[in-house]
Structure formats: structure tokens, C-alpha cells
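Deviation from plan, reported transparently: magnesium ion complex.
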Amino acid sequence: MEVNAALYAEAIDDFLLKMEKLRGEDDPDCQNAIEKIGSLLRIAMINVTFYRTPENEHRGEGNRLCLYRNGDPDMDRFHYQRESMENGNLVVYSIHQKTGDPDWSEQEIEKIGVLAKMLFVYNGRARVMKMAEYLTFYDRDLSIHNLTYFTQYADGLISRNRIGRFTACYFNLRRFSNINQQVGRECGSHIMNIFVQQLCSLFTDEEEEMVCRIGGDNFIAIFYKEHTDSILKFLKGTEISVDTPVRTRVMVTASAGFYNIPDSCDSSSSIVDCVSMAYNVAKDLDKEPYIFYDEELREHIREITMVQNLFPEALEKEEFLVYYQPKVNLKNYQLVGAEALCRWYHNGELIPPGKFIPVLEQNRAICALDFYMLEHVCRDIRSWLDEGRDVVKVSVNLSRCHFGNMNLLTNLLSIIDKYNVPHKYIEIELTETTTDVSFKDLKEIVFGLQEHGIDTAVDDFGTGYSSLNLVRELPWNVVKIDKSFLENNRDAPEQNRVMLKHIIAMSQEMGISSIVEGVETLEHVKLLKENNCFLAQGFCFDQPLPKNVFEERLAQLQA
Ligand code: C2E
Ligand code: MG
Ligand code: MG
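Because the crystal trials were delayed, the predicted structure below was used instead.
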């Protein structure tokens, strides 16, 4: 049979055109184009097989590309074409003739050769595209999908009106660097892999539910709403054991933000936003680091963002005010000191520190505020001294966010010395710390201040976990006993009192002075006196006072 040259050329053109918008091997357009050429050339089937060289290894299973399923190929009548690829690999096309047809002519065999070359290009392209797809949509280390795939997949669910069936979750493996340190990086990756596989095993539909890796130990997952409880339980803590290189068992936990996606959700980016927002709040919670996104959370986040955005200008405009809360000697009820506490005066409203300090601690902006407070306190003390008033020691709070600042001591001293404030008038309050790293920094700063004659107080004593070590290892001047010790513990009424008594006694024996904060009633005062503690701070005497009111207290001191 003669090949119609015009039709053949047209079919090839068509094929090449289709290849331009090739989506992959299963692209029906491309299949149709190949079928068209194949029918002209009386081809029953084309097998494409990839071999690793040397050819006889025959390891590659190869791709099978069948053009016709009608009629069995005649195994004796096929054309065999080999091409070598990069990396020394080999691709073999076996092109089978339709059963019952007369043999191919020379001209047809030549054209079949051209077709085989085209298929070689086609397959190469398909493989490159597959590779590109893999790199775009997969995480290579864990062989699971990535964030790009997640967004595409979620958009697909939205367009098919199916998104309302799902919950999304952003999670991070907690302290995974510790696990890596404990077992080594390689074993750590293995553990991460097992954790993800086990999590996936909670899904019932592996096509629709999935975990995608965002990067490092951050993941985003999407699953049916009815699986939320089991996934939350899994993320709260799962023990993973591995045998390589030695038997190791570790507890893996995650912090997570969840979002029960509503039917009305209209973009994958809003899903990513909501789970990330919930996660960002959850990650700072020590005990139960899991949060579901809802309107209340959105409002909370709105407030956080507002504080963060307004802060730089507010600092510049000096909207932050120093309030002074007196410290009182219980023997004669004289003013003996004060704590400087921050208030934000914004748009005619006085905002308490609970509303903005935790927010500023998140991005270390608190450090600027602490320096600002110290500077304002020093400025006030300077002016009081210049006016010839009697002055008391003022304590300034220093956030833990300062740890890591190598110049902290120099920064503090330069502010104090700029106003030429005698060091005896300044005390620095620091809270307990839980990590070893910050403990080292804490130690340095407490010793450093000590050397320069500046007192240090451990604030909220008794609320952290390392209290006793902290007093043993550092030369504090003052222990500020937390107000919670004054509460009536209903379950164990005596517990707080016993602890209060012993903390006071211990401090005394160690030569550290103790003060109790949150002293609200005369009963509290009596309790302190009974336990030989004669320093107090609290509403029983004064609220934190604006500067001018505190100045009246200073004036009484003189009288
Ligand atoms: P803190 O350093 O433990 O300060 C004592 C807190 O207890 C103050 O709350 C004070 O107003 C409150 N208080 C005093 N007496 C009583 C009382 O009798 N009963 C009760 N229930 N509370 C009392 P405030 O002013 O709201 O400050 C809260 C926290 O904010 C402070 O706790 C401190 O950790 C932080 N803070 C305030 N100003 C600054 C600052 O300039 N820098 C830093 N880093 N933190 C600050
Ligand atoms: Mg304090
Ligand atoms: Mg305190």
C-alpha cells in the first residue's frame, strides 16, 4: 500500500502541533495524533521500553504506548528502532504491524523511522515534564506533596464545591532539632518520615486526604472533618520507634492550627492564611499548643497586628507612660521603693501592659520599650534629684527577649550613666527562665549588673520551674514573691501559706531580701508580718501611680 504523502505530512504537523501543548503521555490529543499517523502506516502497536545500559541488564520495565487495541500484533512482523539517551540509557521502540496486512514498503519503513524519532522526542519531553511536575509538586526528601500542590488541590476542591467536607491543619514538630541532636540527622529524617506515614494512615481516602510538607518540620494537611479528633490526638504525642542504627524510641509532638473549612471558602490562600494564623498563636502556648481558627481568633490577631503596626510611631510620639507602684516597708509603712510599670496612652485611652507586652515580646519590639522605660525612669530620677527631692530605688522590668543581645549590659549602663543616675537608685527585675541558653545569658547579666552596683530582683518568683536553682546559682539582691502565693488555694488551703513561709525564710537565710507583690488586704499584710517579711507592693497601699501622683508620695517622704 502506498503512503499518502500529503496526509502523512499533515498528520505529522498535527502531531508536532499537539506536542507543543503536550500535557503528558496520557494526553488524549496526543494519542489521537499518534493514532492518525499510525493508521496511515498500518501500525498495530508500539512498545516503548527503556533499558539501562548495558542493554542486557533489561532493568527498566519501560512505558507501553499502545496505539491500537483492535487486532493482535503479529510478533514476527515488527520494526525495531533503538535510540540511546543521556546517561548511557537506551530506548527501544518495537513497532508492530497490523495482523493480516501485507508487509511494509521501504518508504513506509523510512517513515516509521521518522515516527520513532518523533516518539523519542515525545517521550523525552514527557519525562522532563514529569520530572518538572515532581519538582514542582513534591517534596523530594519525604516523597509527599508540597505547598504548591496543596494550594492547587484545595482550589480544585473549591471549584468542585467539595471544600466544606474538609478540615485543614498547619503543624510543626515541636523541638525536632532536639530529636535530631539526640538521634542524628539521618535517623531524625527517618523518624519524621514514619511520623508522616503514620499520620497518613489515619486517613480513609488517600486520594483526597493528604499531608504536604511546607519545609523543614512544617506541614499542612487536609482531611475529612470526621478525622479531626483522631488527628489532633495523634499530633498531641505519638511514640515512634526506629531500629536503625540502634533501637530508638522518641515521642514526637506537634503544635498546630486547625481550620474547619466552610462551604463558602473561596480560595486556597484564605485556607493557608487561617491555618497559619491559628498556628502562630498556638505555637506560643506551652501546654496545649492547638488552636482552631474562628472569628474570635481573627479579632485577637487583628488586635495583635494593630499593636505591632502602631508601636513604632507610638514609641516615637512617646505615648508610653511610666506609672510608679510604691513598695512599702511594713514596719513603718514608709515608701521604700517603686516599680516602674508601663501604660500606653493611645487615642485618649489608657491601655494596660497585658494588652501589648505579650505582643511586643513576639517580635522583640519589647526590647526597645524596655530601654525607653529605663530611659524615662532615669530622666525622672535625674529631675527629682535636681529638684532636691528624696528619691527611692526604682525597679524596671526587663523582658527575657533581651537575652542574646551581647551588648545588653553596656546598653543598660549607657542609659543610666547618660542621666548620671547613681546606680543605687536602679534595680532590674528579671523573670525566671526555662531554657539553658537563656540561663547562661541571665547569669551574665545578673553578675554584670552586680559588679556595677545595680540590684537585681527575680520577678514572679515561684511561678517558673527552675526557681530553686535560680536562687542558688545567681547573686540576686531581691526575690519578688509572686502574688499567687497569697491566693486561697481551695483544694489545699495550707499549701500556699506553707510555701510562702519557707520561701521567705530561705531568702532570709541566704541574705536575699524578699518582697511580696499583689498585697491587697490587711489580712495579707498580717500574714507577711507573721512570716517576717516586711516589704510589700500592692493595691492595699497603692495602684501603679502616674508620675505626678507618685511625686506627691515622694514629697510625703521628705516631710
Ligand atoms: P509584674 O512585673 O509582675 O508587675 C506587677 C503587676 O501586678 C502589675 O501589673 C501591677 O499593676 C500588678 N499588681 C500590683 N499590685 C497588685 C495587687 O494588689 N493585685 C493585683 N491583682 N495585681 C497587682 P501590670 O502593671 O498590669 O503589669 C503586668 C506585667 O506587665 C508586669 O508584671 C510585667 O511583667 C509587665 N510589664 C509592665 N511594664 C513593663 C515594662 O516596662 N517592661 C516589661 N518588660 N514588662 C512590663
Ligand atoms: Mg515586675
Ligand atoms: Mg511580678
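The chain has 17 helices and 23 strands. We consider this an acceptable substitute for the interim report.
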